[in-house]
């Protein structure tokens, strides 16, 4: 009975989310049909502008999301995590660089990275190496590089700065977290997990697969697509409203200052929780208003830590670790971006 109740509750939530998403898209794709001669009222030009900006962001981003979710699903299902940490150097500091390189190889977005890192740590990956992978993988991969290139093809400084900063800062962040925690266990373990962990250690037994890998890949890709799609649409909609209705004089005052513009765009990245495979298109829509440095801060900070990732981190890791992690990532990204702006490097 409980299984059926859980199934219907889960199905109801998914169906409601899909229905709302469908209604939202239909309304925005057909907003121009709701004009005076058809619906008896006139849509203001400002809302038509919102519609244009919104659709532009969504249409450009969807192909990269589709590519990213399928590559991510294939890696998550077919690549064994224990093969990754097996070849890492035993020295804690020497392992930081290979961890960042691994992040550049595996195109996993931040929507899936937290549970993956949790599994890697459970299989024996050191905490600080998992941290490097956590912050590097959502940015340092070919899919994100390609989307950033197409979004900023007229100014490749953004692409180079995003990839370079992500690589260097991920190593620094991992090193700081190693100094603070010395790889002490920071995971949350349930009673069932602790019992299962002991059984595996004693017998080597593992749980059987409930479905074949092909079905797992499809299910994972579909779930991830609809999860990311909702955040993308929300982000695109807020960005369109932001660009259309916010006071331009206030925006110019905020966007032209190295400190305020960087802080605002980092906060914006945290709240929007965009997929790293599509956030470049949202950032590009602010290109005429905010400094290049603040856009880079948006593109580096968001994939490392955002609202939805924070919720998952608190679910899987101890609160002290999460607070320290957020504080370190925020401080390091802000200081690095502001310093590069003051030095006129970006």
Automatic annotation (TrEMBL):
- InterPro entries linked: DUF318, UPF0718
Q: Any transmembrane segments, and where?
A: 15-31, 52-79, 91-117, 129-152, 158-181, 225-246, 281-301, 321-345
Pfam entry (one)? ArsP_1
Domain of life according to the entry: Bacteria
Q: Which UniProt keywords apply?
A: Cell membrane, Membrane, Transmembrane, Transmembrane helix
Mode of membrane association:
Multi-pass membrane protein
User: Organism source for this protein?
Assistant: Halalkalibacter okhensis
Under the heading PANTHER family, the entry gives:
UPF0718 PROTEIN YCGR
Family to which the UniProt record says this protein belongs = Belongs to the UPF0718 family.
Where it sits in the cell: the answer is: Cell membrane
Protein name, per record = Membrane protein
Primary location recorded for the protein, binned into one broad class: membrane
One Gene Ontology cellular component annotation? plasma membrane
């Amino acid at each position: 009975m409980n299984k059926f109740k859980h199934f219907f509750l889960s199905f109801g939530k998914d169906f409601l989310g899909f229905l709302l998403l469908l209604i939202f898209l239909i309304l925005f794709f057909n907003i121009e049909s709701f004009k005076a001669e058809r619906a008896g009222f006139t849509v203001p030009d400002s809302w038509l502008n919102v519609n244009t900006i919104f659709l532009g962001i969504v249409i450009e981003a969807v192909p990269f999301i589709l590519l990213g979710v399928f590559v991510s699903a294939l890696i998550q299902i077919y690549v064994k995590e224990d093969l990754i940490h097996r070849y890492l150097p035993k020295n804690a500091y020497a392992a930081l660089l290979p961890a960042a390189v691994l992040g550049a190889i595996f195109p996993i977005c931040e929507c899936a990275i937290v549970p993956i890192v949790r599994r890697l740590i459970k299989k024996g990956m050191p905490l600080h190496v998992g941290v490097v992978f956590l912050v590097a993988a959502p940015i340092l991969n070919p899919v994100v590089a390609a989307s950033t290139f197409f979004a900023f093809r007229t100014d490749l400084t953004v692409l180079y700065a995003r990839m370079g900063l992500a690589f260097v800062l991920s190593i620094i962040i991992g090193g700081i977290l190693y100094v603070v925690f010395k790889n002490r266990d920071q995971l949350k373990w349930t009673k069932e997990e602790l019992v299962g962990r002991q059984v595996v250690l004693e017998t080597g037994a593992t749980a059987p697969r409930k479905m074949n890998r092909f079905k797992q890949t499809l299910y994972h890709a579909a779930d991830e697509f609809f999860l990311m799609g909702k955040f993308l649409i929300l982000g695109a909609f807020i960005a369109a409203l932001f660009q259309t209705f916010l006071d331009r004089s206030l925006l110019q005052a905020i966007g032209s200052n190295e400190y305020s513009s960087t802080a605002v765009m980092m906060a914006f990245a945290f709240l929007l929780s965009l997929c790293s495979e599509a956030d470049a298109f949202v950032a590009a829509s602010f290109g005429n208003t905010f400094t290049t440095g603040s856009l880079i801060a948006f593109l580096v900070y968001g994939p490392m830590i955002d609202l939805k990732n924070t919720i998952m981190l608190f679910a899987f890791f101890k609160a002290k670790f999460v607070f320290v992690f957020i504080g370190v990532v925020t401080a390091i990204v802000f200081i690095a971006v502001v310093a590069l702006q003051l030095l006129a490097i970006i």
